[in-house]
């Protein structure tokens, strides 16, 4: 991203001024400027509409201390984060400014964080992701991505003696038509709100766990896909509140049962061709499509530190829970970390992609996609090859069977994932010294936070944070 000089600032101010009449007509009073911290919590500042041009030109002040924030709002004394000194500027991306259908009077624009000198902040995850997108583009490669969003809806007041308890607000069965009938008005309002905001919804359905629902959206450029992930979640939270429902996107809402995933679909493109299909490789992969996927597979242990970033993530990421607890890939294998999807014959060029199942919605989507792009690009540069695909639940094999098939268990704790990330040279280089260190420091901070806390205690503390 460019240095913000006076011309750029003037252009940004003019662009914001040009938007004002339309926003006033839409009843917008104020604009929310969200960004996601290292721990995965979305933080926000807002400006009244009249201040949008000034915010576009000069940004809005925000302390860099948030780089060191944990999900309980305590602050880690990191090597490069956590200091109360200094200031950053939040600059709204006006190209993504959206009138919020679920929050009348409000618009929303994700921000890039800059220094006061007008250079991108080295720990800005959105700027990092854009740099990685640009670097792939230099090799003629484009990635399309999309997040699936799973969430549970609970009764707003929990239990009589425990307001923070999770009590499913729905009783119908998994994928049940009766559950859909229960959420009929709520789901309609949600779909209308998303459409008004320009989000292309692919599907909505009742999911497996008690009170669980899911929305999947169309694939986009990675920065747009991460922005959309924020917008979808924000919309779900807002529409749920209108319907008197409390929502949780936490990886594990209660200690038993299936958690909330945040599966990510990725495809690699060159000159308008989907490199995940039409090739001579396994399931139609082209050499670059295979190499990208092999890069993801190789770096999965370290990627978990950004894709499954919470202690609660590892309560979800267990075998035989559809969460992808083993480093393996397979065609439509929902127990492999990488589920390869071809789509139906005739539609493969459009539909083929790889789904990373191990990730969840505690993740900062920009950091997560940045990690995936770095890992995939390293695979492409090295011409990496995939091992044989796995066609069974890896948990159904013996230890020896898994060893023979080259299937490794993924990290089973946040500490293990943080160590893998710390030692991953590809991710270290892509993130840069400061952000790489901060991710490690924040993860270790969360590990320390939950030292000795029971699974149920962790679920309870994390339940309403994301
Ligand atoms: N809820 C499961 C998870 O934690 C995923 C279910 C599915 O396959 O969509 O990832
Ligand atoms: Mg699902």
What would you note in describing this structure?
- Pfam families: Gln-synt_C.
- Keywords: ATP-binding, Ligase, Nucleotide-binding.
- Residues 125-466 form the GS catalytic domain.
- This protein is of the alpha+beta class and 466 residues long.
- It folds into 2 domains: 6-121, Glutamine synthetase, N-terminal domain (Ubiquitin-like (UB roll), Roll), CATH 3.10.20; 132-152 and 218-223 and 255-462, 2-Layer Sandwich (Creatine Kinase, Chain A, domain 2).
- 38% of the residues lie in helices and 19% in strands.
- The chain has 14 helices and 17 strands.
- It has helices at residues 6-25, 52-58, 125-138, 177-182, 184-196, 222-242, 287-307, 313-316, 348-351, 365-382, 399-404, 414-423, 425-449, 455-462, and strands at residues 30-36, 42-48, 60-62, 88-92, 98-99, 106-108, 111-115, 142-154, 201-206, 212-217, 246-248, 264-270, 273-274, 326-331, 336-341, 353-356, 408-409.
- The strands form 3 sheets. Strands 8, 9, 10, 11, 12, 13, 14, 15, 16 and 17 form a 10-stranded mixed sheet that branches.
- Helix 3 packs parallel to helix 10 (365-382) and helix 7 packs parallel to helix 13 (425-449).
- The mean pLDDT is 96.
- Glutamic acid binds at residues 150, 208, 258-261, 316, 322-323, 334, 357.
């Amino acid at each position: 991203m460019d240095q913000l000089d006076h011309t750029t600032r003037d252009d940004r101010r003019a662009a914001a001024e040009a938007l004002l009449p339309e926003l006033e007509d839409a009843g917008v009073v104020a604009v929310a400027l969200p960004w996601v911290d290292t721990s995965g919590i979305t933080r926000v500042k807002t400006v009244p509409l009249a201040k949008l041009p000034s915010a576009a030109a000069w940004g809005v002040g925000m302390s860099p201390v948030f780089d060191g924030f944990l999900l309980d709002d305590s602050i880690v004394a990191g090597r490069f984060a956590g200091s109360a000194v200094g200031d950053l500027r939040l600059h709204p991306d006006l190209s993504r400014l959206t009138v919020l259908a679920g929050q009348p009077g409000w618009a929303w624009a994700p921000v890039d964080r800059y220094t006061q000198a007008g250079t991108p902040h080295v720990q800005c995850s959105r700027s990092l992701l854009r740099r990685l997108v640009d670097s792939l583009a230099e090799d003629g490669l484009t990635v399309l991505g999309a997040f699936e969003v799973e969430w549970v809806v609970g009764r707003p007041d929990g239990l009589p003696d425990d307001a923070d308890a999770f009590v499913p607000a729905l009783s119908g069965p998994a994928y049940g038509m009766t559950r859909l009938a229960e959420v009929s008005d709520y789901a309609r309002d949600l779909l209308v709100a998303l459409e008004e905001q320009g989000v292309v919804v692919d599907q909505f359905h009742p999911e497996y766990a008690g009170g669980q629902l899911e929305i999947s959206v169309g694939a986009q450029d990675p920065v747009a896909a991460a922005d959309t992930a924020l917008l979808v979640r924000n919309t779900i939270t807002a529409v749920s509140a209108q319907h008197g429902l409390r929502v949780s996107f936490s990886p594990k809402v209660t200690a038993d049962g299936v958690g909330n995933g945040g599966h990510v679909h990725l495809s690699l493109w060159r000159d308008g061709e989907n490199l995940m299909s039409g090739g001579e490789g396994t399931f139609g992969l082209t050499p670059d499509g295979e190499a990208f996927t092999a890069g993801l597979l190789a770096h999965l242990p370290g990627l978990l530190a950004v894709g499954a970033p919470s202690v609660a993530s590892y309560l979800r990421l267990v075998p035989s829970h559809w969460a992808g607890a083993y480093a393996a890939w397979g065609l439509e294998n929902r127990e492999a970390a990488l589920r390869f999807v071809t789509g139906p014959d005739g539609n493969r060029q459009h539909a083929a992609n790889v789904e990373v199942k191990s990730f969840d919605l505690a993740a900062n989507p920009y950091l997560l996609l940045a990690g995936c792009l770095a890992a995939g690009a390293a695979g492409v540069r090295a011409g990496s090859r995939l091992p044989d695909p796995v066609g069974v639940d890896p948990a159904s094999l013996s230890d020896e069977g898994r060893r023979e098939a080259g299937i490794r268990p993924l990290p089973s704790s946040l500490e293990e994932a943080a160590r893998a990330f710390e030692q991953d040279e590809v991710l270290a280089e892509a993130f840069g010294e400061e952000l790489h260190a901060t991710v490690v420091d924040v993860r270790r901070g969360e590990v320390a936070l939950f030292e000795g806390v029971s699974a149920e205690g962790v679920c309870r503390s994390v339940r309403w944070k994301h």
